[in-house]
């Protein structure tokens, strides 16, 4: 049976066998729960606010990278304009606070909902395109939004090129604005959000929708001839990617209390894209690892005064040396030592 036939057969299979796999998932679920719980204690171990701040920045970037990696892995579509949803969500949160006077919880919920609806609308228009036009269209969306917030007539709302400084009332899960600005206090919010979006992306990848998406990625024409709708699943994937990116944007607004046009710039989206490529798209943890390496690299290279040069050289070396990304290199290294790892199809399911 060919790989395409196998994927098609998996896509036709209903989830009735899921109950029989429940015992097999119990131990991994316990391990994940323990890791999530241990992650909450990082501020008690890492006392330095500077390095804890770097980790928070890595999480914010990692969540945006997860959205790009999820869409690339499941649909074969690379989103160059992730900044449209990260920066867009930050601006929606900021405008809700400054113009409507909403508290942090209400503004965050509104920003997530509005950004997700925007992703669904944009997805309905662009997911039918080929990968390269798709990438360019998402990039154009981000640049269009950047130009929009800088229009002089909208300056009272968006702040123009000066951006918007935020001062919001109420609490966000019991944390005030002053507390959210401190890395050690903001860490649990960022950590749990990262774990939540990773589990969401992993769960969708293992679901029937994920199998259908990967089958469409492998051979869309054959899936259509087999009677599958190839349009709606891609909209769902793009919408979910937009939602995950919006989570990063809302957290950025909560943490920095500032929204600027740079959040919608290609450079911002490019950071998440580079993190995805460095970490690899074969698993949900790859983009997060890439974001961590990228943030650490930026900190180290920035001290030399040759940030752009060293960053470019390092990114090229990593991508050329490890085509599957850093996580793929780790997985292959473990495999060489005799650890049994799933084949490529298993990697798809594990995503």
Tell me what you see in this structure.
73% of the residues lie in helices and 1% in strands. Strands 1-2 form a two-stranded antiparallel ribbon. The protein has a domain at 47-265. It is globular. By secondary structure, it is mainly α. The model is unreliable at 14-20 and 343-351 (pLDDT under 50).
Number of helix segments? 18
User: What's the main sheet like?
Assistant: 2 strands, antiparallel
Q: In terms of quaternary structure, what is this?
A: single chain
How many β strands by DSSP?
A: 2
Net shape:
globular
Write down the Rg: 20 Å
Low-confidence stretches: 14-20, 343-351
Helix content: over 70%
* Overall mean confidence score, pLDDT: 87
SSE string, helix = H, strand = E?
HHHHHHHHEHHHHHEHHHHH
Portion in beta strands: under 5%
- The separation of the N and C termini measures 23 Å
Strand order of the largest sheet: 1-2
Derived from helix and strand composition plus strand pairing, the structural class reads mainly alpha
List keywords for this structure.
2 strands, 18 helices, mainly alpha, disordered C terminus
Quick structural gist:
By secondary structure, the protein is an all-alpha fold. The chain has a domain at 47-265.
SSE layout and pairing:
Blueprint: H1 3-12, H2 22-39, H3 42-45, H4 49-75, H5 83-98, H6 104-126, H7 131-149, H8 155-158, E1 164-165, H9 177-180, H10 183-206, H11 208-218, H12 220-225, H13 232-256, E2 258-259, H14 266-279, H15 285-302, H16 307-321, H17 325-336, H18 344-350
Antiparallel strand pairs: 1-2
Helix pairs in contact: 1-11, 4-10, 4-13, 4-14, 4-15, 5-6, 5-7, 5-13, 6-13, 10-13, 14-15, 14-17, 15-16, 15-17
């Amino acid at each position: 049976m060919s790989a395409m036939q196998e994927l098609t057969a998996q896509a036709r299979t209903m989830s009735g066998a899921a109950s029989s796999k429940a015992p097999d998932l119990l131990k991994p679920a316990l391990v994940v729960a323990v890791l999530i719980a241990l992650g909450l204690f990082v501020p008690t171990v890492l006392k330095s606010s500077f390095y804890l701040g770097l980790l928070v920045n890595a999480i914010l970037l990692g969540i945006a990278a997860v959205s790009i990696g999820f869409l690339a892995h499941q649909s074969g579509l690379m989103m160059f304009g992730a900044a449209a949803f990260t920066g867009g969500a930050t601006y929606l949160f900021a405008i809700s606070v400054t113009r409507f006077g909403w508290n942090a919880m209400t503004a965050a919920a509104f920003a997530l909902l509005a950004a997700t609806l925007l992703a669904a609308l944009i997805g309905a228009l662009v997911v039918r395109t080929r990968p390269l036009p798709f990438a360019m269209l998402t990039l154009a969306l981000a640049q269009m939004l950047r130009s929009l917030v800088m229009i002089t007539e909208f300056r009272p709302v968006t702040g123009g090129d000066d951006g918007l400084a935020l001062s919001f009332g109420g609490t966000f899960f019991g944390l005030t604005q002053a507390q959210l600005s401190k890395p050690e206090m903001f860490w649990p919010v960022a950590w749990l959000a990262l774990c939540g979006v990773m589990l969401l992306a992993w769960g969708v990848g293992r679901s029937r929708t994920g199998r259908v998406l990967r089958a469409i990625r492998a051979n869309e024409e054959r899936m259509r001839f087999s009677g599958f709708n190839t349009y709606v699943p891609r909209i769902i994937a793009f919408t979910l990617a937009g939602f995950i990116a919006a989570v990063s944007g809302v957290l950025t607004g909560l943490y920095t209390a500032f929204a600027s046009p740079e959040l919608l710039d290609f450079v911002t989206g490019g950071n998440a894209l580079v993190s995805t490529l460095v970490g690899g798209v074969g698993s949900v943890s790859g983009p997060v690892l890439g974001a961590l390496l990228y943030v650490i690299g930026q900190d180290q290279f920035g001290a030399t005064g040759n940030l752009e040069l060293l960053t470019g050289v390092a990114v090229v070396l990593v991508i050329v040396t490890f085509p599957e990304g850093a996580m793929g290199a780790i997985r292959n290294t473990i495999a060489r030592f005799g650890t049994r790892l799933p084949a490529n199809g298993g990697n798809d399911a594990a995503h």
